[in-house]
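STRUCTURE:
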């Protein structure tokens, strides 16, 4: 009797997870297996395997760029940005991905800073970001009560972001900072400040849409509905009716102004590895629950900010 409710919840969660694997991973991979000529003939033209990206727009609007993920704490890159970070880092997109972390995560104790800075490098390695492209700043104090000065952030970013041959793309939090975390919100205003003041007109800024409480902990439920409607609309409208209209329940808006990233099982496994093995010090018991239920681990909605 007492066990019935938890068991029911567990069953619903497991079922949703299995449905998600089918929608996000099995269907797209079967699609590649049966439609991709390179795979069918076992003759490959490119040096990258034709891995599916059916769950993110193809081609990705962020390509051949220097992408800077501007984060507040070591582990933000996994906990909030992993679907977009992993997709953008994929070799076929030709991006050069950097992580700029504004604190070393020493809010509990100063001695933690060294450990967490190193953990960020370990996590970056798992995510495919080279150590030389990871910057951890220590002049910003990590904490729930700390607001960081926007002009100071602008100055820090100008000294880190060098004008190279590739256009710069900045990715950071939105004005709600995922959970109203003042460090994240400061980064939004500081990065926006930098973006608006930079003379580099080829640069772009994307912000991560904060999800409300129910959406944040919706596990794979909402994603399943979106992917299901998306597969169905592509199948029915594209193949059966052969029409060129874009219907989607949630108006999947994949112009370059707004990009939705969905992880598949392979990408989610990388996120779990980066978090649990890279950021070992952060894996207290409740984190496991958060990692399993959080929608940010399988879904990112990046919105482009126009000047
Ligand atoms: C990115 O670079 C590759 C290789 O140079 C090129 O084939 C591709 O068209 C480029 N993509 C974009 C969007 O510029
Ligand atoms: C943050 O500020 C609140 C209210 O001023 C205070 O109660 C709390 O102890 C502070 N927390 C930290 C970590 O300093
Ligand atoms: C549907 O979306 C595709 C890709 O985003 C676009 O090329 C096409 O023009 C759209 N069709 C309509 C009718 O809006
Ligand atoms: C897509 O998003 C952009 C920017 O957020 C917006 O301007 C545009 O109206 C949206 N298009 C649709 C069809 O919702």
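SEQUENCE:
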């Amino acid at each position: 009797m007492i066990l019935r409710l938890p068991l029911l919840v567990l069953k619903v969660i497991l079922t949703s997870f299995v449905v998600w694997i089918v929608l996000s991973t099995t269907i797209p991979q079967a699609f590649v297996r049966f439609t991709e000529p390179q795979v069918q003939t076992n003759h490959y033209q490119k040096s990258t395997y034709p891995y599916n990206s059916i769950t993110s727009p193809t081609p990705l609007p962020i390509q051949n760029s220097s992408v800077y993920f501007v984060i507040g704490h070591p582990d933000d890159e996994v906990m909030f940005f992993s679907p977009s970070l992993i997709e953008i880092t994929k070799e076929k997109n030709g991006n050069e991905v950097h992580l700029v972390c504004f604190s070393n995560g020493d809010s509990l104790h100063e001695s933690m800073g060294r450990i967490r800075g190193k953990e960020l490098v370990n996590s970056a390695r798992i995510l495919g970001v080279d150590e030389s492209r990871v910057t951890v700043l220590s002049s910003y104090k990590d904490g729930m009560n700390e607001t960081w000065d926007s002009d100071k952030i602008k100055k820090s970013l100008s000294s880190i972001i060098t004008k190279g041959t590739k256009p710069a793309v900045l990715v950071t939090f939105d004005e709600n900072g995922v959970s109203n975390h003042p460090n994240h919100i400061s980064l939004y205003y500081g990065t926006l400040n930098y973006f608006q003041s930079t003379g580099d007109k080829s640069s772009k800024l994307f912000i991560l849409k904060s999800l409300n409480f129910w959406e944040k902990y919706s596990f794979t439920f909402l994603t399943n509905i979106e992917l299901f409607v998306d597969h169905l609309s592509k199948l029915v409208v594209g193949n059966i009716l052969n029409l060129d209209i874009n219907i989607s329940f949630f108006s999947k808006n994949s112009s370059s102004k707004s990009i939705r990233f969905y992880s598949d099982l392979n990408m989610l496994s990388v996120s779990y590895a980066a978090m649990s093995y890279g950021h070992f010090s952060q894996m207290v018991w409740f984190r496991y629950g958060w990692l399993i239920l959080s929608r940010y681990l399988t879904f990112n909605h990046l919105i482009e900010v126009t000047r």
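REMARK: The first strand starts at residue 66 and ends at 71.
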